[in-house]
Amino acid sequence: MSEMPAAQAVGLGEWRCDSIPIPIIESGKVLVKTSLASICGSDLHIVHMGWNVQEFPLEHGYPGHEGIGEVIDGGDTEFQAGDLVLTVPSIWQSKCFSGYQLIDPRFLLKVPRGVPESHLLMAQQLGTVVFGSRKLPSLIGKTVAIIGQGSVGLFHDFILRKMGAHKIYAIEPVGERLEAGRNLGVDELVGVTGDAATNAILDLTNGEGADVVIEAVGSVDTLNQALKMVKPFGKLAAFGLPPTMEKIPFDWDSFFRKCVDMHSVFGAQDEAGLPAFQLAIDYIVNGEIDMSPFVTHQFPISEIQDAFNLAESRTDGALKVSITF
Q: What is the mean pLDDT of residues 76-101?
């Protein structure tokens, strides 16, 4: 076989699947045959909203960066043919939406067999949450509000509980996602949005606001909403990507008056040895988190348009949409 299926974003929100040559083996690079790839919220921002995109079409396979597959050729690296690996390429080099990838070994982790690959695949996004959680203060006795209960928000439920958060409040309008949060031990479920959700968090915290707010949606409204619901001198983690590369309206007054400490989350793949992803793999392999509820929908690569449409619509109980090869 000399060709592989590969998806290509050809316009804003538009995909097609082509057959293109398999990458040529290079020394120092690992050739991986992709088994599964999953759609991340950042993929939706890039392809459906044009974030960080200069022009279409994009490169084949881009921007997929959550994958799992089998090593075909180790390219004179520590990896051997037959190894099962988690592929977590840098977003600038990501091509997980293709049947094969030629990838730098620093973006690979060996994973054990005997655990469903669809579960191990979730270690990429769980790993980014592990990475981001390191920037948070001690959560002992603290209240945390999480805006959004997609997979990122739900993985935060799990990690923040492990970190000792006293109370976790989850905001999400989609009922199935709220229920998933309940199963991960969220203390209060807030099934409304906008001002109603902000008021609910203020009511739950006696008007003070949450000690920590995680913005896990990636919109202008929810970013500014987070500034309204965090308490003075609180911490805000801007996990979600903005919907545009343009400057966005920002509630500077709330940020300034409350002395909020705010940070973004980016760069987990660039850590030497990928420790955040390794810990995520350990959580899954050891049974500390059950990934069964997250593996909700799979589509063959030929139907990537339908897969992205579902991931964007968040209907039919979709939590994590994956691509098969």
A: 96
